[in-house]
Design a protein that fits this description.
Elements (H helix, E strand, L loop, with lengths): L2 H55 L1 H12 L6 H23 L7 H15 L2 H10 L5 H13 L7 H4 L20
Helix pairs in contact: 1-2, 1-3, 2-3, 2-5, 3-4
């Protein structure tokens, strides 16, 4: 065997090593992307659970949100500020989800967040709040929500219609002898 043959065998072995390395890197890259997608989904779910758990932990905030989704104007300014802060957390989480929409597998998370917010905006108080506050949020989010509201296609039910506990029909919300929300 001469040096030319040995060099040719060396080049073939080197080429195979390069192909093997590239294959290994492709597998590792795909795996890392899958892990990143799963992590992003877990974080979005944890964020949503965190927002909702605030209502479980703070009964006064829950009461104010229930009033706010029904009649935004029935709230005093300090109460509006507390409810607005709660809504803002919901909207910021959707903004984060929209920022990750390009990750395959996050489309359902974005749709879920969007439907939660649309359900709020379909309530009389939610719509009144949105008219005042929408300018504060990420323009692509505002455009996307307003477009869906305008077309009225495939809208989720409002919080009030979809989940009866958001109404204020029960006695603990009406002052005695009046129709005023407490």
């Amino acid at each position: 065997m001469n040096w030319d043959a040995i060099a040719a065998i060396g080049e073939i072995v080197g080429a195979l090593a390069v192909v093997g390395t590239l294959g290994y890197l492709a597998i590792q890259t795909r795996s890392a992307k899958d892990v990143a997608i799963a992590q992003a989904q877990r974080e979005l779910t944890a964020d949503l659970n965190s927002v909702w758990s605030r209502l479980e932990q703070d009964r006064e905030l829950l009461r104010l949100v229930r009033i706010g989704v029904n009649d935004w104007q029935a709230l005093k300014n300090n109460e509006k500020a507390a409810v607005h802060a709660f809504y803002t957390q919901l909207f910021f989480n959707l903004s984060a989800a929209m920022g990750q929409h390009h990750l395959k597998g996050n489309e359902d998370d974005v749709q879920t967040w969007e439907d939660v917010l649309l359900g709020l905006l379909l309530c009389p108080g939610g719509r009144a709040w949105w008219e005042e506050a929408q300018y504060l949020y990420f323009p692509p989010l505002v455009s996307r929500l307003n477009a869906r509201l305008k077309t009225s296609v495939d809208l989720p039910p409002s919080w009030i219609k979809g989940l009866s506990f958001w109404t204020t029909d029960d006695a603990d919300f009406v002052k005695e002898g009046t129709n005023k929300l407490t």
